[in-house]
Amino acid sequence: MKKTKVSAREASATKGSATSDSRSQRYQELRTILEDRRREIQSEVQSRMKDVRADAAGAAGVVDDVETSESDIQDEIEFALIQMKAETLHRINEALERLEEGTYGRCFECGDEIGPQRLRALPFAVRCKDCEEAREVAAQRERVLSRRATGFGLDLSQ
Fold this sequence. Notes:
Structural class: mainly alpha
Oligomer: single chain
Number of strands: 0
CATH topology: Four Helix Bundle (Hemerythrin (Met), subunit A)
CATH architecture: Up-down Bundle
Strand content: under 5%
Order of helices and strands: HHHH
Shape: flat
């Protein structure tokens, strides 16, 4: 057996190639997750929109005020759900753009990498867990202060 020496450059190139391969694999995995989620949501939105149209078309007939009110409430709920899904689609499309730009997986606040578990659970996340928690605490604090400032919705000026 003959031992050969591997130069530092060759070792680095091999290591760099392995790192590049793992990045490429991660990139493909993330892209697949995002695209699968996008297809799933698009399908849900299309299905809901068909259901709303079918319900509206089938609503011809004698309808009293209670039925009209219930129908209006149901329509508002369906519309809100469609809006939420559309917002999620928008976030997924933005995440795909960040993936193409090479900025996907970086926290908007601190610039650190967002954990892989968080990205699997919420593939369009823009903040790391710590920054998102800090943002939520600040938002909660703002709501509490706002309620205190308005007297919990009561007009105390009378």
